[in-house]
Amino acid sequence: MNEIVLNKREVDEKLKQDESRLAELRESLEKSEQLTGNMVTILDSFTTRLKKLDETILPVYNQTLRLTRLQENVEKTLQQLDRVIGFHHVADEVEPKVREGPVAGIEAYLKLLEKLHVAVEFFTQNNPGSVELSHVNELFETGLEMLQKEFLQLLKRHSKPVPVPILHDIAACEDMEDLPLLEHLPVRTVLDLKAIAQYLMSPGGNTDIMSVYAQIRSNQLGRSLNSLKEASQQAQLLPASIPKKSSFAAAFLKGHGPSPIKRATKRESVRRGEPGPRLGSSASFLGEPTLAGPVEDQLEGCSAFMSSATVFLRLIQSEVRLMEQIIPPQHHKHVLDSLTKQPIEFFMREGEALFQQARRGIIRHDFSITISCLRVIKIIQTLQPEYRGVLQGLPSDSFSRFPLLIEQFEKLGLKALDDYTQYIRGDPEKQSNLPKDGTVHELTSNTMWFIEQLLDYTRIVGDMFLGQSSFGRRSTDLERKKALGQYLVRVLDALNINLDNKARCYENPFLSAVFLMNNYHFIHRAFTGNEIMLKQLTEVFQDIEDHYNSLIGNQGRAYQRGFLKLISFLGQEASMTVAAEKVGKQSRQVLKDKFKGFNTELEELHRMQQQWSIPDAQLRARIREDNVEMITPLYTEFYRQFSKANFTKNHEKYVKYTPESLEDTLRAFFDSGAS
Q1: b/e per residue 233-258 (b: at least 16 CB within 10 A)
Q2: Are 599 and 593 in contact (CB under 8 A)?
Q3: What angle do CA 616, 619, 623 make, to 5 degrees?
Q4: 270 pairs with which residues across the strands?
Q5: How far apart are CA 396 and CA 520, in angstroms?
Q6: Which end of the chain is more exposed for a tag (fewer CB within 10 A), N or C?
Q7: What is the pLDDT of residues 165-204, one digit of tens each?
Q8: How wide is the angle at C-alpha 273 spanned by C-alphas 272 and 274, nearest 5°?
Q9: In terms of C-beta density within 10 A (0-12 exposed, 13-18 middle, 19 or more buried), how is residue 629 classed?
């Protein structure tokens, strides 16, 4: 019962609390409704006031806007009127300065012309038949003419041929980084020319100055080339970039002691029957290919042409750089084509003249010109990629003439190489140019020098030979070396045949053997002393060293047969008996005849062979040693047996030589000829 009372009491208390909260909520709601009503009233009042303000201000705003537009229109109209009036007066304002020319500077003058150009466009659009249009147009054309004249004068005034010393430096420069920088025109002039060119050659503008620029620069390029040609001819210029002919003797001497052939003075050559050092003239042996002497002297103008090939390329490249600074890009090809046309024609004429000169020389059997042809081919082939880079794609297709020039020289060189082999093999001159002392023949030294020179052009010569059967296929280095090696073997075979024919013209067969031995030894030392030459030859003829050693040995034995008569006096008849105290009458006479015959034959051999020449010191020493070993032991035994015999009262008359003095005499053979 008590629990029910307590529960009812709790319920009543909660009910009172809820009623109190409800009363508070009703009071808050009434206040909120009152505030909302006040806010709505305020907003309605604000809206009403805005409507009244809009109705008052909007007409004023519209009126102000109309007045502002009217003011702007008036100002624009006044500006246009001022502009139109300015067009009518622009001719009078700028005419004195326009007719005076760009004396105040190119930039200021271009601004004047731009004013005239705008005026011309205005009158053309708005009043095409007006006097004003005619006036400003005439003045604008005058300005353009003055601008063209200034362009021409600037270009002519500052364009000069490149000085010859600089051209020499260019020709001698091997490293592009060390190449002298050519500044054809001052920097200020280049900037002025560029401004004029860009203005005159703008789209739709006059392009006449392209021809003017190309002509002037072409003339200067041609003058530079011509000055180099004249200077090269006068000074016989040979630039460092062009490989000079290496001395055959120097190459031969490398690791081999003395030279295989001594270059005699003219007097010594006459005495010994050898050619003088100057070849290719009346002093040289008639009918022989003139191969010794400087290569550059054999084909006049060759070095100058090779120099000009390098210089011409560098000048064109410098002209391209100058053109790119002045002429707009869209005109580059046309200008460069016009600029290079005449200089290329000049260069090709020089090349054609050189080709014809070489052709005539080879017809005359001046085969050293072949090396000059190879030098020309090499320099043009080396420069050809760079020429292609600057000339290919030009309208006149100038670059195509360079491969044609190379082809001409290649065909000529190939014919010359074939003719040279045939000429050596069938040389009709045998006696007129035969060295009297049996020394190395001029033809041999020339041929080995020629072969040495060919080694520097293995790639070119190999391609020339392979071109007949390769049908344009790219040759390998091995194929090129093999082709050249085969040719060198053919040349040596032809030379051996020629030397054998010449040797038969000697009346003395033993001098003939000395001649062949000298020449074979010279050839052998030449190719064994040159590692590249030896490798080229052994690729084709593996046993070539043994072959020439055999040839030399055969001729050495043939030479020693010349001592058989001398040795015959040292023989002892079986019936001859000699005692120290008493010699029979018959034996005395035999001994006298033997000693006298031996002395006479030895003196004759010594006299004769002193006039013979073995120029190579090693070969000379070896031959002398062989003679000593062959004769001295026989004479020593003969001397031991009979020198003490009492076969004559005048002992010294017959026994002239002791074994020691005989050996000294034998070692003195070839002294005069080798001195």
Answers
A1: eeeebbbebbeebeebeebbeeeeee
A2: no
A3: 135
A4: none
A5: 56
A6: N
A7: 888 888 887 666 667 678 888 999 999 998 888 888 876 5
A8: 95
A9: exposed
Asked whether the beta carbons of 209 and 156 are under 8 A apart, the reply is no
Interatomic CA distance for residues 475 and 199, integer angstroms: 53
Tokens linked to 624: 């002398």
Q: Compute, in degrees rounded to 10, the torsion defined by CA atoms 21, 22, 28, 31.
A: -140
| Residue 356: closest CA among 299, 414, 289 | 299
SS3 sequence, 447-503? HHHHHHHHHCCHHHHHHHHHHHHHCCCCCCHHHHHHHHHHHHHHHHHHHHHHHHHHH
Q: What is the pLDDT at residue 204?
A: 59
Q: Alpha helix locations (H) across 392-441?
A: 401-425
Identify the three-state secondary structure at position 604.
helix
Cα separation, 169 vs 188, whole angstroms: 26
DSSP 649: S
All residues at 6 or more sequence positions from 534 whose CB lies less than 8 Å from its CB, including other chains: 527, 528, 545
Closest CA to 346 of 309, 391, 380: 309
3-class DSSP state for residue 35? helix
- Residue closest to 172 by CA, chosen among 239, 243, 231, 238: 239
In a 3-state reduction of DSSP, which class is residue 591?
Answer: helix
Distance (Å, rounded) from C-alpha 227 to C-alpha 433? Answer: 43
Buried b (16+ CB within 10 A) or exposed e, 536-572: bbebbbeebeeebeebbeebbebbbebbeebbebbee
156: three-class secondary structure by DSSP? helix
Residue 516 has pLDDT above 90, yes or no: yes
| Stated length of the chain | 675
Torsion of CA 95, 98, 103, 109, to 10 degrees: 120
Q: pTM, whole model, 2 decimals?
A: 0.71
Rounded CA gap, 189 and 194, in Å? Answer: 8
Q: What is the pLDDT of residue 261?
A: 33
Three-state DSSP class for residue 583: strand
Tokens 């326009």 correspond to what residue?
98
The DSSP secondary structure of 185-235, one letter per residue, reads: S-HHHHHHHHHHHHHHTSTTS--HHHHHHHHHHHHHHHHHHHHHHHHHHHH
Radius of gyration (Cα) for the chain, nearest Å?
A: 53
Q: What are phi and psi of 86, to 5 degrees?
A: -60, -40
| β-bridge partners, 578 | 583
Nearest to 357 by CA among 287, 298, 315: 298
Question: In a 3-state reduction of DSSP, which class is residue 578?
Answer: strand
Query: What DSSP character marks residue 428?
Result: -
N- to C-terminal Cα separation, the chain: 167
Name beta bridge partners: 583. 578
Tell me, what's the pLDDT at 31? 87
pLDDT at 282 over 90: no
CA distance 279 to 446: 10
pLDDT score for 271: 32
List Cβ<8 Å contacts ≥24 apart for 347-356.
Answer: 347/225, 347/308, 347/309, 347/312, 348/401, 348/405, 350/229, 350/301, 350/305, 350/308, 351/305, 351/376, 351/405, 352/405, 352/408, 353/301, 354/299, 354/301, 354/302, 354/305, 355/405, 355/408, 355/409, 355/412
What is the rounded distance in angstroms from the CA atom of residue 345 to the CA atom of residue 366? 28
